[in-house]
Amino acid sequence: MPVRPITPGALRAELAARLAAAVPPGGRLRVAVDGAPPAHPGELAAGLVEPLRAAGHHAVHVATADYLRPASLRLEFGRTDPDAFYTDWLDEQGLRREVLLPAGPGGTGRVLPALFDAARDRATRAPYVTLPPGGVVLVSGAFLLGGTLPFDLTVHLELSAAALARATPPGEAWTLPAYARYADEVGPAAVADVVVRCDRPGRPALVDAAR
To answer: Name one GO molecular function term (predicted).
Structure first.
């Protein structure tokens, strides 16, 4: 598969064009922007909102950091358990119910951008937004692929194990086994529709993944 160095701005423009072309007639597009925090999936997803809107597609960005489970559930085995971090932190049921199903075929388009404030350990009380037909919802975060979450198009921001270890703050090094497990069990670079290699900060390289 060809790998093309690309500037961050050109990457946003090319991805926005691809997403706009993938929106089904009269429907909506559900996009995963998957990656560990050092790959900055939230930054890329947020950067796609305006280009999509300029192309005539209303877009909403939802970060998985706003869809974590309550502390009593996600921290049941402690604050630094990598297996719990991998399997128990994200409220997949809430994300599916409040974002992915409403944005899917036959859905209402009534999307909740944020469900839970992990810092305060309580619901956000954020207002719902309406995603009209032709709209795009961009969900950013880690561990989004290979499971049961219903996405229409997936983007994976790939970091080598060495690059991820270098970019991860020492206090978060306990998460590295979780990302290694994800790479081994899911192989996100093999299942994503689009792969962006992010080993060199500010100098991404675009790969079109073959399915």
So the answer is: kinase activity
